[in-house]
Amino acid sequence: MTRVAALTIGLLVTAAGACRRPPQLGDPLPGLSAAERARFERGRAVFDSVFTPETGLGPLFNANGCAECHEDPVRGGTGDEVERHAAAFHPGTKGRPCDELAALGGPVYQNHVTPALHTALGIDSEPVPPQATAIAARTTPDIFGFGLLDAVPDSTILSYADPDDLDRDGISGRPNRFFDGRLGRFGRKALVPALLEFNEGALAAEQGITTPAVPAEETVAGQPLSAGVDPAPDPELSDSAVALLDTFVRLLAPPAPEKLSRQARHGRDAFDSIGCNRCHIPVLRTGDSPIPALRHKEVAAYTDLLLHDMGPELADICLGDATPSEFRTEPLMGVRRMARFLHDGRATTLEQAIELHNGEAARTRDRFRALSAEDRAAVVAFLKTL
Amino acid sequence: MSRFVLGPLCIIAAFATVATAQQTPQPPPPPPTHHVQGAVHAVDVRGRALEVLTGVGMAFRVVRLQVPADTRMTAAGAPLTLARLQAGDLVRVSYGARPGGFVAYSIERLERVP
């Protein structure tokens, strides 16, 4: 081969790589092996499963399949369902001030029941017990890029924590911990330590699907199920099906940020200068992983995965170590596709969401308010590229 | 010894062997040991019972355990009493299923609630 031909082929290969389109929403991460991609596709089929009472749905449930909620604009996206979580918070109590009402069916109180449970108990949804001190509304998050978040080392998250605000910047992020002591990162209160458990727990709490990891059904506000209301034998989903589902979720690519306009570049600078980036850390780096596509990668997550006090106006339930007013910094990746914002969807615009920041974010919110109208619009324009 | 004497002796010996075997039955295999690590949800010292909060993702569970007097309880290697456990303590428990429910074999307090 002549040097010219070799150079031409080299240039073509380089150009092909450069022109490779970024993953679209719902696509797998780039760089998967054929076997990983095949498992991703098989996992998508599990994700798309629609359950019935005969195949395991319920007796208590919020949705009849993963894709009923995570549907917009594609599988893995968000949805319009709003569910109820409840807990009891007793500040000053010796020991744990938070009671997640686990012995009373909490903290997830399902909105729907199967016909058999309705016939047995005459209920249309799981009742929240009177012991609850707060009921929280929870919107459906999208789950793109969650595999990358799962692969961020604990040490990275802890490096951003400043629970005693030693740097005196008014921001004191702290980690939540699961009941067994592990660092949490998933969920609006950052309680769940690992993606697999997040998925397994969702099967049980959202769909009433038992698995080898969660072999028993939810109770009805703490009362065992009546005989005959759950016809499917447990576990209702096998370990291998759960593993495929987990693979699909784990390998969903994060939304690719859009190219920045001049206004958006200006907005990014303002986002940094007023301090949004102190909690919404722009880039997290993953650690080691058995999956090369997740190993030592950067993800534009815009979160520190820590808890921050957001002020009394947003407060609802406690969860683990999180007080009612503490929430995990919401990842902003994909925020441009959201129609509602904050944990309960109360904000319908990004400006409203920023305005509702308080507590540790009050100073940054005030700096946002102090920006010129042009600069505020630039910040929003930047957010709409994420 | 005549055959008339040997015969009854053999029968008696056989019965004796069976009777002895019935008096000392083989112990049943021990129930499988399970482990749970979680937060103490409640302690009932008088009723010698413990509840441990655990779960998978957002599916939470409370494991209720009886704590017999001979359950090995430790904290940092030192002996511990049930009365010194409190809600929120991080514990690791080995236990087994018995006809009356779960029974704790050992309880180790890993962290004390602040």
What is this structure, in a nutshell?
The complex is a heterodimer of chains A (386) and B (114). Chain A is of the alpha+beta class and 386 residues long.
Task: Write up this protein.
- The complex is a heterodimer of chains A (386) and B (114).
- In chain A, helix 7 packs across helix 8 and helix 9 (262-273) packs across helix 12.
- The radius of gyration of chain A is 22 Å and the shape is globular.
- Chain A has 386 residues and is α+β, with helices and mostly antiparallel strands.
- Chain A is built from twelve helices and ten strands.
- Chain A has helices spanning 3-19, 34-47, 66-69, 115-121, 146-150, 154-159, 195-207, 239-251, 262-273, 350-355, 362-370, 373-383; strands spanning 60-61, 79-89, 98-99, 108-109, 112-113, 134-140, 284-285, 298-299, 307-309, 326-328.
- The longest helix of chain A has 17 residues, at 3-19.
- With 114 residues, chain B is of the alpha+beta class.
- Chain B has a domain at 34-111: OB fold (Dihydrolipoamide Acetyltransferase, E2P) (Beta Barrel).
- In chain B, 18% of the residues lie in helices and 46% in strands.
- Chain B has one helix and seven strands.
- Chain B is globular.
Low-confidence stretches of chain A: none
Distance between the termini of chain B: 82 Å
Radius of gyration of chain A: 22 Å
Uncertain residue segments of chain B: 1-21
List the helices and strands and how they pair.
The complex is a heterodimer of chains A (386) and B (114).
Chain A: H1 3-19, H2 34-47, E1 60-61, H3 66-69, E2 79-89, E3 98-99, E4 108-109, E5 112-113, H4 115-121, E6 134-140, H5 146-150, H6 154-159, H7 195-207, H8 239-251, H9 262-273, E7 284-285, E8 298-299, E9 307-309, E10 326-328, H10 350-355, H11 362-370, H12 373-383
Antiparallel strand pairs in A: 1-5, 2-3, 2-4, 2-6, 7-8, 9-10
Helix pairs in contact in A: 2-8, 7-8, 9-12
Chain B: H1 3-23, E1 34-44, E2 49-56, E3 59-66, E4 72-75, E5 78-79, E6 90-98, E7 101-111
Parallel strand pairs in B: 3-7, 4-7
Antiparallel strand pairs in B: 1-2, 1-6, 2-3, 4-5, 6-7
